[in-house]
């Protein structure tokens, strides 16, 4: 439960340190595999353990991925950077130090744009500064065990498979002001990394992890308060809830005259509150010095621009284009671009020509965000696994827009298309579902209905106009929902009025 902080809360100052596992096949300084989920301690070697006589060698693909990530978040790529040793004693770091970057990181001084959608669907755009992106190696993983979880673990096991996996640590500037903004910032970083293909961003597997630094102050112009670190946030929901809790906790404590300690705290999902873990170390505690076993990194201007040319269109640019060019709402654009395969599918569908014409982008978006997304979620599928391709969806929308089928008929054949694929037009033809657009045929059916329901006709002509809906329903029932609704209403309205 979030503690009450009074009516007028202070201003929060939030920055994130985001650790992104780069999706290379081998680790940052060795050829050991980065495969996830295998038997513990099988993806290790003497370099990972830092045994005497071994030397690290930088993985070139790691450098490429880091530079592309830096360019995508608008950083300057350093022509010269270096690695450092960070003295860090912990059971899951076998060398007792971590190879990282300290004073000369690979990328600095960037920014990303975030969009926060309010409850009314309105979009607020903010630019969040990026202080740096630096490379480092990941630590292993501690697995705590014990039958009595309330009393704590009785033992801990160490899995070094993750040790030495390449990390890009992205450090934001303290530009965030709420838990919601912090969660959206982390989500946008993940979108960017996934669009680039440099990381899968899977938070459940630890591929993207966030540490939150947070303090409060009485107003926007006041000095920063004492910073508290929230460690290892592993979901966007946890980031938002932990920030909101911590803002309220710190504000309440300051108003009560209590001192805020510089410490590391953990978010407890079960109790929905933060709890103290340890006092926070400073950079001097790590005793950095240049890594003696690795030379400096040199990135030429030609190589940097070659990597820049390979960058795809990124989420923010796509969102703007979908709004400006295709007329989608900010909400629709955000939903479609959240997942790159979904955005690619949308683009392929609106680019496909059916009878020499493209289809309405909003209609395609509605099908993707509605029935199709519901099918994907229910069956835990990616849009890439759908038997119905983008061209098939475009044809379905064209059939509706061309008046050959109704939306009701489209929903009726969609499950078959999603399960088996096929051509919408062929299914409509085979099942005899084409819309009835012949005025003479609809006139004849209407005449039968009016003759069969004289009382309702008399009531309608006596002023009960809502009975037209009754006749529309009867017409649709008689035609199996295939009568052209617009034409049917026109004919019914004329005939009912005599």
From TrEMBL:
A GO molecular-function descriptor: asparaginyl-tRNA synthase (glutamine-hydrolyzing) activity
Residue ranges annotated for the Asn/Gln amidotransferase domain, each copy included: 344-496
InterPro entries, per database record: Asn/Gln-tRNA_amidoTrfase_suB/E, Asn/Gln-tRNA_Trfase_suB/E_cat, Asn/Gln_amidotransferase, Asn/Gln_tRNA_amidoTrase-B-like, GatB, GatB_C_1, GatB_Yqey_C_2, Gln-tRNA_amidoTrfase_suB_CS
GO biological process: glutaminyl-tRNAGln biosynthesis via transamidation; translation
UniProt EC number: 6.3.5.-
Keywords: ATP-binding, Ligase, Nucleotide-binding, Protein biosynthesis, Transferase
Catalytic activity: L-glutamyl-tRNA(Gln) + L-glutamine + ATP + H2O = L-glutaminyl-tRNA(Gln) + L-glutamate + ADP + phosphate + H(+); L-aspartyl-tRNA(Asn) + L-glutamine + ATP + H2O = L-asparaginyl-tRNA(Asn) + L-glutamate + ADP + phosphate + 2 H(+)
Main EC class the enzyme belongs to: ligase
UniProt similarity note: Belongs to the GatB/GatE family. GatB subfamily.
Record HAMAP family: GatB (MF_00121)
Function according to Swiss-Prot or TrEMBL: Allows the formation of correctly charged Asn-tRNA(Asn) or Gln-tRNA(Gln) through the transamidation of misacylated Asp-tRNA(Asn) or Glu-tRNA(Gln) in organisms which lack either or both of asparaginyl-tRNA or glutaminyl-tRNA synthetases. The reaction takes place in the presence of glutamine and ATP through an activated phospho-Asp-tRNA(Asn) or phospho-Glu-tRNA(Gln).
NCBIfam families, sorted: gatB, PRK05477.1-2, PRK05477.1-4
Subunit: Heterotrimer of A, B and C subunits.
Designated name of the protein: Aspartyl/glutamyl-tRNA(Asn/Gln) amidotransferase subunit B
Organism: Aphanocapsa feldmannii 277cV
Gene: gatB
